[in-house]
């Protein structure tokens, strides 16, 4: 597997490869390939980071995006890079793209960089979900959590000519015949949202039809060409199609109404779902307390820059900075919640 250091501009779509249905045997074959690819990646990544290891974090930093260029993780990595460079927080910042297995290849590579503080890994809900879905050897507890930065909201959408005018209309028809309404989404996170909605509507998730799409753009096409009748997807991915009148938004998945977003929440309509696609930042394990504190301070400083605040507006992110003990509690709660959703899916 090649590791790319690139300065290509980021796009807002999240590259989320969802494992196709077909049982654990298929997943097992995928994992075998992951192990081989990860072995190659470790050697390549080591050569990239060895020069920076042990240096002052303000002199040099590598930010690892656990996906290809373009997409949510890559966008976060590059916006962090630009904010740090523009404000002189770090002299030399590079972004390395390391795709594969829902981000777990990158996680595994960072997990072995014991004690090397000049590396940051972008993560989030999707990465945590992938460690559970793929039962990866590397877990989030194998790296050092620094902060949750932002969260993105999913929207529940249908084609503009759909007979379903409200979330209640859709849920009623879905409950009457769960397999008759094919759903889609841009990645594993979106399937978790559909699962959560099914449970809230009194539907067994294993009885639903979910068509995996490789990214938000492909999910939208599945809706527009009639392959799917409903979808869960990122607000930023879908807002252009909603405003253009091609898709109808039935609900936004958030705990409370969002300022400036004229879409009712699922909770307001009686469906208690609020899973968000949060983005986090992590460092290798084995760091001293002083190194960990310095990295956490760097991350917080970065989020206070004008460049980062501008990115929040451009990408429709919700700023949610979580650090310290609160972060440990948050990650533990999210892991338990996601594990329970996968169990409901029969995985």
UniProtKB/TrEMBL annotation:
Keywords for the protein's UniProt record, in alphabetical order: Membrane, Transmembrane, Transmembrane helix
SUPFAM superfamilies: Periplasmic binding protein-like II
Short name of one Pfam family: TctC
The keyword Lyase appears for this protein: no
Organism: Pseudoclavibacter terrae
Protein name listed in UniProt: Tripartite tricarboxylate transporter substrate binding protein
Protein's UniProt keywords contain 4Fe-4S: no
Domain of life: Bacteria
PANTHER family (alphabetical): TRICARBOXYLATE-BINDING PROTEIN, UPF0065 PROTEIN YFLP
Cross-referenced InterPro entries: BUG, Bug_dom1
Transmembrane spans: 26-48
Region (Disordered): 1-23
Similarity field: Belongs to the UPF0065 (bug) family.
């Amino acid at each position: 597997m090649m590791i790319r250091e690139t300065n290509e501009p980021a796009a807002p779509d999240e590259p989320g490869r969802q494992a196709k249905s077909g049982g654990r045997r298929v997943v097992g074959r995928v994992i075998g390939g992951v192990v081989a690819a990860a072995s190659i990646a470790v050697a390549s990544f080591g050569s990239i980071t060895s020069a920076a290891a042990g240096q002052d974090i303000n002199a040099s930093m590598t930010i690892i995006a656990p996906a290809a260029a373009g997409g949510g993780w890559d966008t976060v990595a590059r916006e962090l890079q630009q904010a740090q460079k523009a404000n002189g927080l770090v002299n030399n910042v590079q972004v390395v793209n390391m795709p594969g297995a829902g981000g777990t290849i990158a996680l595994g590579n960072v997990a072995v960089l014991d004690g090397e503080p000049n590396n940051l890994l972008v993560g989030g809900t999707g990465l945590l979900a992938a460690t559970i879905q793929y039962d990866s050897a590397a877990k989030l507890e194998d790296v050092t959590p620094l902060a949750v930065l932002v969260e993105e909201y999913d929207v529940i959408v249908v084609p503009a000519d759909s007979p379903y005018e409200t979330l209640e209309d859709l849920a009623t028809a879905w409950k009457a015949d769960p397999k008759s309404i094919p759903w889609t989404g841009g990645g594993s996170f979106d399937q978790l949202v559909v699962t959560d909605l099914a449970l809230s509507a009194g539907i067994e998730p294993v009885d639903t039809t979910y068509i995996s799409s490789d990214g938000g753009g492909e999910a939208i096409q599945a809706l527009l060409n009639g392959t799917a009748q409903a979808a869960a997807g990122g607000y930023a991915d879908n807002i252009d199609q909603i405003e253009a009148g091609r898709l109808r938004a039935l609900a936004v998945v958030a705990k409370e109404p969002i300022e400036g977003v004229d879409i009712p929440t699922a909770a307001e309509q009686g469906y208690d779902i609020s899973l968000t696609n949060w983005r986090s930042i992590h460092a290798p394990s084995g760091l001293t307390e002083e190194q960990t504190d310095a990295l956490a301070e760097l991350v917080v400083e970065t989020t206070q820059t004008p460049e980062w605040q501008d990115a929040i507006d451009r990408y429709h992110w919700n700023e949610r900075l979580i650090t310290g003990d609160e972060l440990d509690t948050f990650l533990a709660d999210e892991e338990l919640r996601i594990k329970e959703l996968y169990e409901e899916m029969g995985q």
